[in-house]
Every structure is written in structure tokens, then in C-alpha cells.
Specification:
Helix content is about 50%, strand content about 20%. The protein has helices spanning about 10-30, 30-50, 55-65, 85-100, and strands at about 75-80, 80-85, 110-115, 120-125, 130-135. The strands form 2 sheets. The protein has a 3-stranded antiparallel beta sheet, covered by helices on one side. Strands 1-2 form a two-stranded antiparallel ribbon. Helix 1 (about 10-30) runs antiparallel to helix 2 (about 30-50).
Length: about 140
């Protein structure tokens, strides 16, 4: 049975759908995963764009949005002559999770930090279940 060609509207719909999926994937990923997902999303969106002869203005905007690099965030707590970096605290918590508790880093879904400068502690909760503290 012969294949039927997709209409230009169907091709644009595919591009729009691919771009929407790329944007959604980018929003859901973590910081590092976001960078990798954004790269994959851009590749997927570009491949989908090649299928269509022309793209609508909306599809072009969606592809451009997916191609943007994620925002790099840095958070520091400064008090009593000390400076604490959020990323350093997260790194310490991950080390406790993997080395002391013998778990895989990939098993971490969430890390919540509570900073208590008056106690010189950062309290953490991993995956809503495991908790502890590290010194600031």
C-alpha cells in the first residue's frame, strides 16, 4: 500500500508537538539534567523542523526557547565572617547519601536544605524520608 504524504499542516503540528515536548522536558530536568535535556531537545526539535518545508512563527519561537541554556544559579549564605555555598552543601549531603548510607546518587529525587546559622547547621531531607545535618 503506497504511503500518503503528510500535509504541511501535519508536519507543522509535528514540529509544534516536538517543540512543546522539548520545552516540557527542559523544565522538569534538574540543573545538570536540564543542560543535557536541552541539548537533546534542540536536536529533536531541529530534526522535526527539517521534516516541514516551512515552520510557523510559533514553532520557530518554541525551537529558539528550547535551544536556550538553562539559568545558572549560585546561592551563598554569608554570616559571622563565613560564606557558605549552596552547591557545596548539596555536595556534602550527596556524599553522606552515597558513602555513609551506601545509596546510589541516582536514587536521589529531592534534597531539601534548612539553614540554621544560629546553630551552625544545615539540616537536610532526602526524598522526603532520610534526614540529618551537616556543619556550616
Amino acid at each position: 500500500m503506497p504511503r500518503t504524504k503528510k500535509t504541511q499542516e501535519e508536519q507543522v503540528e509535528e514540529v509544534m508537538e516536538a517543540a512543546k515536548k522539548a520545552v516540557a522536558t527542559t523544565r522538569k530536568a534538574t540543573k545538570k539534567a536540564t543542560e543535557k535535556a536541552a541539548e537533546k531537545a534542540v536536536v529533536a526539535a531541529k530534526e522535526a523542523a527539517k521534516k516541514a518545508d516551512t515552520m510557523t512563527a510559533e514553532a520557530k519561537k518554541a525551537v529558539a526557547k528550547a535551544a536556550k541554556k538553562p539559568l545558572k544559579e549560585e546561592v551563598y549564605l554569608q554570616y559571622a565572617g563565613k560564606e557558605i555555598n549552596k552547591d557545596e552543601l548539596v555536595k556534602q549531603v550527596k556524599e553522606i547519601w552515597s558513602k555513609e548510607l551506601k545509596n546510589k546518587i541516582g536514587d536521589i529525587a529531592t534534597i531539601t536544605l534548612y539553614l540554621k546559622p544560629e546553630e551552625n547547621k544545615a539540616y537536610y531531607v532526602i526524598n522526603g524520608e532520610v534526614s540529618g545535618s551537616v556543619d556550616l
